[in-house]
Amino acid sequence: MEQLLQQIEALKAEIAAFNDGDAETFRIKYLGTKGLVKAIMGEMKNVAAENKKKPDNF
Question: Domains of the chain: which residue ranges?
Answer without folding.
Answer: 2-46
